[in-house]
Amino acid sequence: MTATAAPAVLDRDGLNALVAALVAQGRTVVGPTVRDGAIVLAELSSADALPFGWGVELDAGRYRLVRREDGAAFAHSAGPQSWKNFLHPARERLWSADRTPEGDVSFTADEPETPSYAFLGVRPCDLRAIAIQDRVLAGGRYEDTGYGRRRSGAFLIAAECTEPGATCFCVSTGGGPAADPGYDLALTEMDGRFLVRVGSEEGAELLERVPHRPAGPDLEASARSAVDAARDHMGRSLPPVDLRTLMGASLDAERWDDVAARCLTCGNCTMVCPTCFCTTTEEVTDLTGDHTERWQRWDSCFDLDFSYLHGGPVRASARGRYRQWLTHKLSTWHDQFGTSGCVGCGRCVVWCPAGIDITEEVAALDAERTALGTETD
Ligand code: SF4
Ligand code: SF4
């Protein structure tokens, strides 16, 4: 079988065999599972740990697990984590230094063992988010070597969407519920079976090792039509205008004051966002003063210190920081990296404690521009 092989079908035993084969290869298999009242991403020892029969109810600032009668494993939207928690972890030690008995200082670079990841159930929006982080963290002049190490061996199994969540809007960001190339295998769950498409030679080799059967044109056509239909059922949408023009024309919008009055500048939206990549470094010294460590940790443009320059922060107000975040996501990200910085996963909407909804804010900015007679489409 090759990367262009015809789609196959796995049943639940086949899915179990797939996970077992990945574990047997020595891979750390990570996928969705129910824990602490949410569907989180965690290491799986078997496909039985997938959230069969669980879905989620979502809204701005609201997330609830709900039971599903159909026993589906992948009929839930993005949870509080994304794959960046594994590829670009929240904290990572870079090096440590010790004072020697002679009074010198010795430095030790941190060289942790890099897990060989297999990600199971990567949503199409998250596949795009990984491609964005690849461009930022592994594709430019300033490579994050830890990210590069973890990413280079990762095996990706996408799970296409047939049931978008109430806060999903990937179609508005130029994506959709079908998986773009970049996966090794792509699953589409159909009534307890999993249509499998092969995206790489490694994916083809793995599929050969597990029990499967040819998909047949009917199942394939139903899967394609279920995924196509999902495009029309997004829970949210962005206004159909040129967002770069809108953001550029909205620098002095009154709406920024409105959102600033609600925004707690907590940074949750940047923590859960699968594309936000900013980090800072900090030194941690022990009480003796003889041992110090340098850690890299996620940073957020909502932190006051983030824009600290020569005696003060450049963006001291919540208005300035929210505007920076949204303008970077939807406009200046294009200038830096050639794409939008938003894949429409809806996480920032769900996990904002103030229930601030990026789609509502953009619609309000658009309405303000329209009211001023400067439409942007
Ligand atoms: S928009 Fe929401 S999640 Fe983001 S910083 Fe403001 S209050 Fe926090
Ligand atoms: S900005 Fe919000 S909707 Fe867009 S990718 Fe980030 S978390 Fe997802």
From TrEMBL:
InterPro entries per the UniProt record, alphabetical: 4Fe4S_Fe-S-bd, 4Fe4S_Fe_S_CS
One Pfam family of this chain: Fer4_22
Domain 4Fe-4S ferredoxin-type: 252-283, 333-361
This protein's record includes keyword Cytoplasm: no
UniProt KW keywords: Iron, Iron-sulfur, Metal-binding
Entry superkingdom: Bacteria
GO molecular function terms listed in the Swiss-Prot or TrEMBL record: iron-sulfur cluster binding; metal ion binding
Protein's name in the database: 4Fe-4S ferredoxin
Natural source organism: Streptomyces dysideae
Origin organism lineage: Bacteria, Bacillati, Actinomycetota, Actinomycetes, Kitasatosporales
